[in-house]
Design goal:
The protein is of the alpha/beta class. The chain has one domain (2-9, 21-176): 3-Layer(aba) Sandwich (Rossmann fold), CATH 3.40.50.1240. 36% of the residues lie in helices and 21% in strands. The protein is built from 6 helices and 7 strands; from the N terminus they run βαβαβαβαβαββα. The protein has helices at residues 28-43, 57-66, 87-96, 113-121, 127-135, 168-176, and strands spanning 2-8, 50-53, 75-78, 104-109, 122-125, 142-147, 160-166. A 7-stranded mixed beta sheet has the order 3-2-4-1-6-7-5. β2 (50-53), α2 (57-66) and β3 form a beta-alpha-beta unit.
Length: 177
């Protein structure tokens, strides 16, 4: 069994002072949401063994804030190829993880790639989570998928079971209800 966690970066400023998309930083809501989702992950084990993070400022900041809620700390690697990665690149990145073979792998990255990946990998799972995820993987959104496999090389489209989809907005709504 392998577990994949897909975390989209938190809410950002519209434009970076440098003018470069990769330099966009988290805004106040983004910092709050990254902390909230990190604490949620920390309270809902099992935690990731390895985390692969896009080097874009917003993804790196999301991870740095979210990781404060996790103990023990997983292994972390910043991968340039995660910035702007499409479905094929993301799937290749996941399969390459077989070299290290974490039982639970997290990617911290961007849409549209992460959203497309979550939708394409999902073959079964929680119907409410699938419906919520079908529209969007929002900022600070987290999709958790399980695969009945022994090696990350076996990950393929439609083989994942969507265990949970959560976001700070969904957490706020559930705490009110």
């Amino acid at each position: 069994m392998r577990r994949l966690l897909l975390l989209r970066h938190a809410k950002t400023e519209h434009d970076a002072p440098s003018g470069h998309d990769q330099d966009r930083r988290l805004d106040e809501r983004g910092r709050h949401d990254a902390a909230e989702i990190g604490h949620w992950i920390g309270r809902h084990p099992p935690l990731p063994d390895q985390v692969l993070v896009s080097p874009a400022v917003r993804a790196a900041q999301t991870w740095e804030i979210a990781r404060e809620g996790l103990a023990p700390q997983p292994k972390v690697e910043f991968l340039p190829e995660l910035y702007g990665a499409d479905l094929k690149q993301l799937l290749t990145t996941i399969r390459i993880a077989s070299a290290v073979d974490p039982k639970r792998l997290m990617l911290v990255g961007h849409n549209p790639g992460l959203h497309e990946l979550a939708l394409t990998l999902t073959g079964s799972g929680d119907d409410a989570a699938k419906k919520a995820l079908s529209d969007n993987l929002p900022t600070s959104g987290l999709a958790i998928l399980d695969f009945a496999i022994d090696d990350w090389n076996e990950v393929s489209f439609g083989r994942g079971k969507l265990i949970l989809f959560v976001s700070p907005k969904l957490l706020r709504h559930s705490s009110r209800g």
